[in-house]
Design goal:
It contains 4 helices and 4 strands. It is of the alpha+beta class and 140 residues long.
Length: 140
């Protein structure tokens, strides 16, 4: 847990996301609301899982116990300090240095195109600042 970092979409961005334009919320909401055996199952990537004030889960007592255990583990390990909740309406997928800067709308499918998220992840993995910047992830 001490080496775990999480990038999570804020709830508004989760709700503004979609699954192939068929389901009008994020993939995690689709799993939570439609594919789990309990309706409104807490899925760990959803921002509301980490909000102790949120009580909108409609799962079984097993779900409630698992959610309580996860929130306790987050508290004990200080994971909240290593989580970033992304609430911006746009993210940069290409920095403008000789080319046109490009931005995209936040989504679960977009994290691998977010130059800031990928650069920070690579710095954590290598344990050092990057020699070359991450500046273009369009098409990846």
């Amino acid at each position: 847990m001490q080496n775990l970092y999480m990038d999570i979409l804020a709830d508004k961005q989760e709700q503004d996301d979609n699954v192939a334009y068929i389901y009008q919320k994020s993939l995690l909401y689709f799993i939570s609301n439609a594919l789990e055996s309990d309706a409104l199952m807490p899925i760990l990537g959803l921002a509301n899982v980490y909000d102790p004030e949120f009580d909108g889960w409609d799962g079984s007592s097993d779900s409630s116990e698992a959610l309580t255990n996860w929130r306790n583990a987050v508290k004990i390990s200080h994971l909240l300090q290593r989580m970033k909740f992304h609430d911006a309406t746009k993210f940069i997928s290409r920095r403008g240095s000789g080319v046109q800067q490009k931005s995209d709308t936040p989504s679960h499918g977009g994290f691998d195109n977010n130059v800031d998220v990928i650069a920070k992840t690579l710095e954590r993995i290598t344990g050092a600042p990057l020699v070359l910047p991450v500046d273009d992830l369009v098409g990846f």
